[in-house]
Amino acid sequence: MSLPPAYLEYDKRGYGQDIGRYDWRLAKDRAPVRLKNARQVAAMIVIPCEYHPIDPHKTPFGHPHGMVTPFPDLRHFTARDYGNRVGVLRLLDALKSAGLKATFPVSAALLTRARPLAEAIVGDGHELAAAGLHGDAIHHAGLSESEERAMIEDVREAFDAAGFHPTTWLSPARQESFATPDLLAEAGFTALLDWESDGVPLPLRTRGRPITALPLLNELDDFKLLVERKQTEDLWTDQILEAKDYLKTEHDRHGAQVLGFTLTPFVAGQPFRMRSLVNMLAEFAGDEAVWCARADEIVKAF
């Protein structure tokens, strides 16, 4: 049976890719960026502090970090709560000891539940970013634009009411609708952590001003490697350090690039993982070719 002619018709199809947010190009055709601080790699550590409701609707799907078993899933709910009350403090201490800065996307629902956490993040000089309303408030194409705009406005209002004004956004489950970048730019966000299209910050076209996508590598995510793939802690940190060293070898050819990876508080903040994590952070701190910076700082530098 042959396919109908309409099957091959797609009005967004274009040269190299089927998306219009940015121009298609190969890495070899990209003008190399030489950072003013002469560093070869910009390391972006992202620590999402998300609130996951115990009774998620899971529309259109459940967040990978959310509840797993039927209601009330107290085991997974309390594990996530442990991350935001205990594990994240270990990560803050480890960063302070290494002298490194990170970006902390926080759910709006945590601002009233864990105000001291937000204050500790800002107090240590880290970037407080927005991680949507909570882990069950997924952005997707099934929402009307007015519904999604209202969700983003609720997030902005919650942060404003708490006295914080983030410019960087991480969507719950890193899921978007076709309109999400437009609506985020409209709401005043200037950086986005959902995409990983390039090795450098990439300005995305929107209906208004651009919003910059920074590469956050899903393949180095601690939840994916330690929980889903069941790798050892040392292998996980070795992979991150290997990525750092490899990007340095590409500097002469491709210029400075961004190494973005995630530390999830209920995963990386476990006591039996701290030795490997502390050793990895020490390697970053001691590498003069590497600049560990906040997402907002990286956008400005590039």
From TrEMBL:
Alphabetized GO MF terms: hydrolase activity, acting on carbon-nitrogen (but not peptide) bonds
Note the superkingdom of the native organism: Bacteria
User: Taking every annotated instance into account, which residue ranges of this chain make up the domain NodB homology?
Assistant: 83-189
Q: Name one Pfam family in it.
A: Polysacc_deac_1
UniProt-listed GO biological process terms: carbohydrate metabolic process
Cited SUPFAM superfamilies: Glycoside hydrolase/deacetylase
Q: Which InterPro entries match?
A: Glyco_hydro/deAcase_b/a-brl, NODB_dom
In UniProt terms, what function does this protein have? Is involved in generating a small heat-stable compound (Nod), an acylated oligomer of N-acetylglucosamine, that stimulates mitosis in various plant protoplasts.
Which family does this protein fall into? Answer: Belongs to the polysaccharide deacetylase family.
This chain belongs to which protein, by name?
Answer: Chitooligosaccharide deacetylase
Give the source species: Marinicauda algicola
